[in-house]
Design a protein that fits this description.
Shape: globular
Mean pLDDT: 91
Radius of gyration: 17 Å
Low-confidence stretches: none
Length: 234
């Protein structure tokens, strides 16, 4: 398999992510938005390049790539909420739904490539459900205020956690096969990124430059890591 295009796109993506972070922290505005779009197109491009090179696992690569596309769409919705303030709630819901569907795609990729037993499936769903419930119950402790977004936060957290937990379960069950280890790392990075973002959206005084930087560095690391799983699947 020829991975040259993948590595070139990954290198460009890392550079564009750095450019975006610099512009976003320095001044924001339309230039940062364009840089963000370019960085997002890069993680999608790496996924499609990897899928094209690893045609023996076209189904897995396609589901992962589609999940990444939905992530970029979710980004667009979340950015629009800052532009069209009168409709910001609708755009926030749309962002949640797009990212949720992205994680559904990641989970389909996992479940179509690794055959879960009834026990491992029950553990994956049960642990993910506990994480989602815990997130809602710890709302006051974490000084968040979900309000009318409580249900979509719960639903999204469940599917987010399911990506991470399912990949961890698959990794353990297969003796830490590389693809599931990499996907588990991606799932953890996503979870950490969204934990920071939750505070920025639903708590007071947490929308700081440091949190903006931390959220985005974790987010892009997660997306590029998810794309890298296509390199590892056999």
């Amino acid at each position: 398999m020829n991975w040259t295009l993948y590595w070139v796109l990954l290198a460009v993506g890392i550079v564009m992510t750095g450019v975006f972070l610099f512009l976003r922290i320095k001044k924001g505005g339309i230039s940062a938005l364009y840089a963000k779009a370019a960085a997002s197109l890069c993680f999608i491009s790496t996924a499609f390049a990897a899928t094209n090179a690893n045609r023996d696992n076209l189904q897995f690569g396609s589901w992962v790539a589609f999940g990444l596309v939905l992530g970029m769409v979710g980004d667009i919705w979340l950015d629009l909420k800052w532009i069209y303030l009168q409709d910001k709630d609708s755009y926030l819901y749309s962002g949640f739904i797009s990212f949720l569907l992205g994680h559904v795609c990641f989970n389909i990729a996992i479940y179509k490539s690794y055959r879960f037993t009834a026990k491992t499936l029950a553990v994956s769903i049960g642990v993910s459900l506990l994480i989602a419930i815990g997130n809602i119950l710890s709302e006051k402790l974490m000084k968040n205020h979900f309000g009318k977004f409580k249900f979509i936060v719960f639903l999204y957290t469940f599917f987010l956690a399911l990506t991470m937990v399912s990949a961890i379960m698959a990794a353990i069950a297969t003796g830490f096969e590389k693809v599931w280890v990499v996907m588990a790392i991606g799932g953890v990075l996503f979870t950490l990124s969204d934990a920071v973002l939750s505070g920025m959206y639903f708590a007071e005084n947490k929308n700081t430059k440091f949190n903006i930087f931390l959220n985005h560095i974790l987010y892009y690391a997660a997306q590029f890591t998810m794309a890298a799983t296509i390199l590892c699947i056999k």
